[in-house]
Design brief:
The protein is an alpha/beta fold. Strands 1, 2, 3, 6, 9, 10, 11, 12 and 13 form a nine-stranded mixed sheet that branches. A two-stranded antiparallel sheet has the order 4-5. The chain contains eight helices and 17 strands. The protein has one domain: Rossmann fold, CATH 3.40.50.
């Protein structure tokens, strides 16, 4: 995923920039994944909706999440420690987009739906945004807010909180949502928000067929392979992409499409991203952190790639505001690779079946396609964006 956005060509590392990750908090054993100096624990907190007291703050709860969603999102930004299950002492340190940025975890997502997805009230999220903004103003911080969350309709309280953050010089990045042709989620759909759609590397689908892989058409070693520098490089033919393998990039069918009144900015890697993760859908949280890793896909995973890039841009040029960064991200995005080909086949593996049932489609083969409404201004090019900042 980092290779796709040319992060290896960037000299910056996000030092001096704070990223407020408003999410479900951290897994209890987050210290196994992140060095403590990268997490601003003194500002970490949680906001909970209570029917009697409305929104209340319970700071200690930020590190008692049952879901690894917020942990995974943060790992894309700053990197993480990988503990091999066969030898937890053989720690490998994997870089993130902005490895020296500091994370402020703010828990605003609490409950879970039938798919193990974290949910919350708009009031909790708005309060969390206002809290992050107050930190930035009080301590004169260079800050990015990462919102890997969203809902199906706009909310005045959320928009007001975002507008206040932007006026205070805070950069706000949000997910486009995973509703596909139904449209984008809010707040990502607001024009003033920098939004991220979900793309993937066609190279993840090629290679030998192995029945024990997550998907029998998936090359289980794809994450070790090198992504060509030129994303227009033709990809091999495959069962999914046809005889013309297309380019190195494709849009995921779940990525929210831009409808009238909505604004999609860029697409970024979101299919699939590895990191520390757990979901109640898998069962009780293991005590052993080496068991808490996974491949996760969604616009939630694309968003921290964009937020991390914004942190790199702020490090280089602290005077940039929301609209400067949005304009640079759009003008430097790579449109060509993501507009050809414009379709691929969805296979009936168990994961796809879950989403097929969720959206009312029976499991089976479906042809997914996309047009300009899916790609925004193109695929994120972090190298060019930081160079232009």
């Amino acid at each position: 995923n980092l290779d796709m956005i040319d992060i290896e060509n960037i000299l910056g590392d996000g030092e001096g920039v704070y990223v407020a990750v408003i999410d479900c908090g951290f897994l209890p054993h987050w210290r196994s994944f992140f060095p403590e100096e990268k997490i601003v624990t003194e500002w970490a907190t949680a906001f909970y909706w209570d029917e009697h007291y409305r929104t209340i703050e319970v700071p200690a709860y930020y590190e008692y999440a049952l879901s690894g969603h917020g942990t995974h999102v943060s790992s894309t930004i700053i990197g993480f420690n990988y503990l091999p299950s066969w030898n937890a002492k053989a720690v490998q340190v994997l870089d993130g987009v902005a490895p020296k940025a500091k994370i402020i975890p703010i828990k605003a997502l609490w409950w879970f739906d039938e798919y193990g997805t974290s949910v919350a009230t708009w009031d909790c999220i708005a309060t969390a945004i206002e809290y992050a903004t107050s930190l930035a103003k009080t301590h004169n911080l260079k800050m990015v807010i990462n919102l890997s969350l969203g809902g199906g309709s706009p909310a005045r309280g959320i928009e007001n909180a975002i507008d206040k953050a932007i006026r205070a010089g805070v950069i706000v990045v949000a997910a486009a949502g995973n509703a596909g042709t139904v449209g984008m989620d809010w707040p990502g759909a607001y024009p003033q928000v920098i939004s991220a759609g979900m793309a993937g590397w066609t190279g993840e689908w090629f290679g030998g067929i192995d029945p024990i892989t997550y998907n029998p058409l998936w090359d289980e070693e794809w994450h070790r392979n090198d992504v060509p520098e030129d994303l227009m490089t033709p990809a091999p033919a495959s069962a999914l992409f046809g005889f013309r393998g297309g380019t190195q990039v494709y849009m995921d069918w779940l990525s929210g499409r831009e409808l009238p009144g909505q604004d999609l900015d860029v697409a970024a890697p979101g299919s699939w991203v590895y990191g520390p993760y757990w979901t109640p859908f898998w069962g009780p949280l293991p005590a052993d952190p080496s068991q808490c890793y996974g491949w996760v896909g969604g616009t939630s995973m694309a968003t921290p790639h964009v937020a991390g890039t914004a942190a790199l841009m702020l490090e280089k040029n602290p005077s940039l505001n929301q609209y400067d960064i949005e304009a640079i991200l759009e003008s430097t995005a790579d449109l060509g690779p993501i507009t050809y080909p414009n379709g691929y086949w969805l296979d009936p593996n168990p994961y796809m079946a879950i989403f097929a049932l969720h959206w009312g489609y029976p499991p089976g083969w479906y042809y997914a396609s996309w047009a300009d409404d899916a790609v925004g201004e193109g695929f994120l090019d972090a190298d060019e964006a930081v160079a232009t900042a």
